[in-house]
Amino acid sequence: MYALPQLSLPAMVELFTQRARAARPGVELPADTVADLCRHLDGLPLAVELAAARVRVMTVAEIAGHLTDRFGLLRGGPRDAPTRHRTLHAVVDWSWNLLDPAGQVALRTLSVFPGGFTADAARHLLRGEVLGTLEDLVDQSLLKVADTRSGARFTMLETVREFCAAQLAATGEDDKVAAGFLAWARDFGLAHHEAAFGPDPLATVDSIRAERDNLMQALHQATARADGATVAAMTAALASLWLIESDYARMMALTTETGWVLSHYRPEPDFVEVTRTAAALCTAFVFSAGQPPAVRSLATLGRLPTAPPDTLIRALAAVLRALPELLAAGAARLHELCESDQPLLAGVANAAATYVWEYQGEPERALAAAERMLASFQDQPTPWARLLAHGRIADLHLQAGRGGMALPHLEAAMRVLDSVGIRNETLGVRLGMVLANLQVGDVDAAERQLALVEPDQPDDAVEVRTFNSAVRAEILLVRGRVEAGLRMWRRVAGLLRETVDRGGVPGLDGWTLEVEAATVISHAHHGRLDLVAPLTAALPDRLSTMLTTLTANRTYLMGFPIGGALLLALATVELDRGAVASGVRLTALAERFHFIRGFRPTMSPTTPGRPPSRPTRRRTRKPSPRTPP
Fold it and tell me: The Winged helix-turn-helix domain covers which part of the protein (predicted)?
């Protein structure tokens, strides 16, 4: 037996198109749908031909939707084909019957890994030396092996994995194998949950990323079983990865999915620290993302035994455990933690203080706390601590429209990432550089940075895609392409509101309101409020809801800067209607709220209703980092 080369995606699309048109000449073949279907056909020419034959009675989208039962779907074929080539199942079954018993046991057991596996993972489930068996399966084209940064990795074609999973179910051993899979997942989480935030995180981050699909599968199975130990281990590992990758949509879903199980879990001693990591990361995310208090995560932390704040995670947990007390007792207790002689504890406490002061409408105190955080973390061996400090200082400057002050900290954050060899997590920093360059008026630099960022953005990251489009809108306005810029703002606002209203991506509310405010203000600057009448009509209700939330829940971290942006948007509407006194009062109130100034020129502190001056396009020199633009 020899390995047949798999078709590339373009070759699969071409073959599918040819065979589909031969089967039904008038069939509709949407390019994106065809490509997506072909991605799941493992590069197998037979699978492509059998799928294409189904267009006689199905649309391409219907074929893709039935791939969960690929063996039922992909049967048939030309009548003159050999019998064993008439169905995909027959082809795999023929190869299966050539295996010795050890090979069959290995394949059906390892089919529980949806994301591939290492030799160590295979050894964990098969109990014994497995390299010879794995080598035989690779030789027979039933496994593929590839070199990755985390070592050699084995994968099955989806077709083979589905067949082997059915064989496993037929033996009645699927529960036993699933238990072994969850045991492997727990051990993996225990081994990796702290190192991602340690001095040398690269290898750990690579390992977690490589196992992501397996860990997600284990998490879903463990959640369904209320298996607290596995849920804690998976949450700790996945939260580490997704916080580092700034994948906030997945973090929000993770926090929601695991909250109940973790809050009812009483860990054995071996699982206390991994549970602490899981609860601390989920609580910190909810706190910093502007959501209501993470009651369940806080309850989980509160039941764990205390530990010295000698790691970043333990320091984070210590501050978060004290969060209810800090919010109730006011500044005195917070100041006490911020002045601790333990650097990690002081640094994390000052990080929390930046959010407390920001959302109490005191941005300068927030910035001072961020600078103290950097001083506390400066000599610590943990790169993520320094990255957090530089990123937070830059974020506060960007919100205030001080791109020139943000750039040095964004550049320092990039140096931190470079120092540990991590390049995949630079998206958030580079997006900050785009905004900073836009704020200082260096439109060409902003556009160059944006061009570098766009190919790396995840397809499903709504917040990143809409941010990029908002920056594009500002660039168009600066370059004098007013109609195109305003149209882009309307498109971004519409997409976000639609996403929020259908509950597609939790945590987008604040970003959506910021975009809606900027959309109204940009149209007011150019005398085109008529194009955003639904948005202007909704402003009073949006503002009322936001102010009510701020008053009722001081820990709700959407905050005053977003409220200020809505006030400024309403001010532009009032001024456009000729209600000058009302517009001026609302503008003054927006200033008191320290309205968010991220997007320039639209959110420049100019008189509402009048176009701001157009920034110059600097080509050769960046502004001094000490001088706000």
Answer: 104-169
